[in-house]
Write a structure and sequence with these properties.
- This protein is α+β, with helices and mostly antiparallel strands and 254 residues long.
- It contains seven helices and eight strands.
- The protein has two domains: 46 residues, no CATH class; 183 residues, Nucleotide cyclase, GGDEF domain (Alpha-Beta Plaits).
- Strands 1, 2, 3, 4, 5, 6, 7 and 8 form an eight-stranded mixed beta sheet that branches.
- It is elongated, with a radius of gyration of 25 Å.
- It comes from Actinomadura litoris.
Length: 254
């Protein structure tokens, strides 16, 4: 036996448990199965096929990481008067303003995992991105860009955005990202209290809802968050019951 491996004693129960664990892990890793019989009843070719590594590239292991997340949604995207032509312009404008605001953090949209949501977008920042950057400078720059862009826009072309910001555990699969954090992010974005706040503040070009965990983290950074500018808000969507923090930037000048 190679000296890079420990001495194997087939009668040692620790080795038996280790071998069983390896079989379970490999079956989970590859999706392969063996007959439910004593291992000595399995043929050599069955074992060779089971342990072959020819399909490893087709079955990537998820690598869980913590990521900074943001989701944006166009307010009243399907309102009367907003036909397909106007919706296309609103979507283009949304991506333009989001890209500009990301630039203040040193990121571009292409640096991030991003998914189109029809009337919005879902963005996952790279591993090394500071989640507090999504509050300042990202959210502050986005508010400023929207104010300037909307100054001369008519009602149908005025771009108002709801944005949710969070930080948490993310897994990856063949279709994108998955995990509790993305679910929580969209629960925040869809919170009825958030929608009401935007509806009751028609002068606001942007509303930002921040998860409680990220808000508290940002609170530890000196001067990073103006706590007086945020107010607590309840998130009650499906099974989610939690507190978050709402920021409505000052209204655009009349």
């Amino acid at each position: 036996m190679p000296r890079s491996l420990p001495i194997f004693d087939e009668d040692d129960p620790v080795w038996r448990e280790a071998a069983k664990a390896l079989f379970v892990v490999w079956a989970t890793r590859t999706g392969r199965r063996l007959r439910h019989v004593p291992v000595e009843h399995l043929s050599a070719w069955e074992l060779e096929d089971f342990w072959a590594d020819d399909q490893l590239d087709d079955v990537p292991l998820p690598r869980p990481t913590h990521k900074a997340l943001v989701a944006v949604d166009i307010v009243a995207f399907g309102a009367p008067g907003r036909d397909t032509r106007i919706q296309i312009r609103l979507r283009e404008n949304m991506y333009t303003q989001v890209e500009r605001a990301l630039g203040a953090t040193g990121l571009t949209l292409s640096d991030c995992h991003h998914e189109d949501r029809g009337d919005g977008a879902f963005i996952v920042a790279p591993d090394d991105a500071d989640p507090c950057d999504l509050l300042d400078p990202f959210a502050h720059d986005l508010a400023a860009h929207l104010r300037r862009e909307n100054r001369d826009a008519g009602p149908d072309l005025r771009l108002r955005l709801r944005a949710a910001v969070h930080y948490g555990h993310v897994d990856h699969d063949a279709h994108g990202v998955v995990g509790r954090a993305p679910v929580d992010l969209f629960r925040h974005l869809e919170a009825p209290a958030f929608r009401r706040a935007m509806a009751e503040t028609p002068s606001a070009d942007l509303g930002v809802i921040v998860s409680d965990s990220l808000f508290r983290e940002a609170g530890h950074r000196d001067g990073r968050v103006d706590h007086d500018a945020y107010r607590p808000i309840r998130v009650r969507v499906k099974e989610t019951r939690t507190r978050a923090w709402l920021w409505l930037p000052p209204a655009r000048p009349r």
